[in-house]
Specification:
Elements lengths: L7 E5 L12 H14 L3 E4 L11 H15 L5 E4 L5 H13 L4 E5 L8 H14 L4 E5 L1 H4 L5 H7 L5 E6 L4 H8 L7 E4 L5 H6 L4 E4 L6 H12 L3 H10 L1 H6 L7 H9 L16 H13 L5
Parallel strand pairs: 1-2, 1-8, 2-3, 3-4, 4-5, 5-6, 6-7, 7-8
Length: 296
């Protein structure tokens, strides 16, 4: 599916697990249907929210196959091919391409970090080889390194670099990114509490944790902005701030999986080191869900 004009709400989908730790494919298909019915514009699998760091390559590919099959070409499917090893990222990207994803998400090399040229080549090694559009992922709070302006300037010219997921939480950096946006290179907010500010800088939407529990709301916020109704878009953003903050009151994806379990969409199962929420934070999350009309 063509991703060149991708905009709106892109859900960073959770990976549901069964009690024995295996992937719950029935719940995964249920989540995909929930998003197709709710107006989600694209589905991102195997990212931070998808707990891919605890999954094997075989499990990654099984999830990709299941989601691509269930989506059946109705919206784009983007596969996370992140790794701190460039070779592993390349191999994963190749495997995801073979399983029919429409695009890739590529993260900076966490832990290793590397120098400027190494980070640049980490991305270009994959993009030179795999014939899929790629979204670069800037999240220094997770990885310990960022995409510098100099690297951004070079990377945005790559024919397969279609955009950046900007999740630094730094509006000054996002403003720098805005200088390099074009019809061929887009910016997506990676922070649910900063979607409208990113849209105001020329962003094209959000890759969202929040959309897991409120697909129609996040879609409508982005659609309102695209339709020129900035006031409505901002109102949706502000009306949902408490829920957004509650979804990040513990490390992602613990709260969002708890929320989906409260909604009856998945079982609340994680892979260690992730662990169920503290009782006070769970109470806050449930109250925030109820505050915007989301009930079990």
């Amino acid at each position: 599916m063509d991703m060149s004009n991708l905009s709106g709400s892109i859900v960073a989908l959770v990976t549901p697990f069964a009690e024995d730790g295996s992937i719950d494919f029935e719940a995964l298909e249920r989540l995909v249907d929930f998003h197709l019915e709710g107006g989600t514009d694209a589905i991102l699998i195997l990212g931070t929210t998808g707990e891919s760091s605890t999954m094997t390559d075989a499990e990654d590919y099984a999830v990709a196959e299941a989601v691509v099959r269930q989506v059946a070409g109705r919206v784009p499917v983007i596969g996370g091919a992140g790794s701190n090893s460039t070779e592993e990222s390349l191999n994963k990207a190749r495997g995801l391409a073979q399983r029919g994803v429409d695009g890739l998400l590529l993260i900076t090399p966490y832990y290793n970090k590397s120098n400027e040229e190494g980070i640049y080549r980490h991305f270009t090694t994959v993009m030179d080889d795999v014939d899929l559009p790629a979204i670069l992922y800037n999240i220094p709070g997770r990885t310990g390194c960022a995409i510098s302006e100099r690297n951004l300037e070079r990377l945005c010219e790559h024919p397969r670099a279609m955009g950046i997921k900007e999740a630094s939480g730094n509006i000054a950096y996002a403003t720098t990114v805005a200088q390099y946006l074009s019809d061929d290179f887009r910016m997506y907010s990676g922070n649910d509490d900063m979607v409208v500010p990113i849209l105001s800088l020329g962003g094209s939407g959000v890759i969202s944790v929040w959309a897991n529990v409120a697909p129609t709301t996040v879609h409508d916020m982005c659609a309102a902005w695209e339709a020129g109704d900035a006031a409505r878009s901002l109102k949706i953003q502000l009306d949902n701030l408490e829920l957004i903050h509650a979804l990040f009151c513990e490390v992602n994806p613990i709260p969002v999986k708890a929320a989906l379990a409260e909604m009856g969409l998945i079982g609340e199962n994680y892979r260690q080191p992730l662990w169920p929420m503290e009782p006070a934070n769970r109470a806050r999350l449930v109250a925030a869900l109820e505050g915007v009309g989301i009930h079990a």
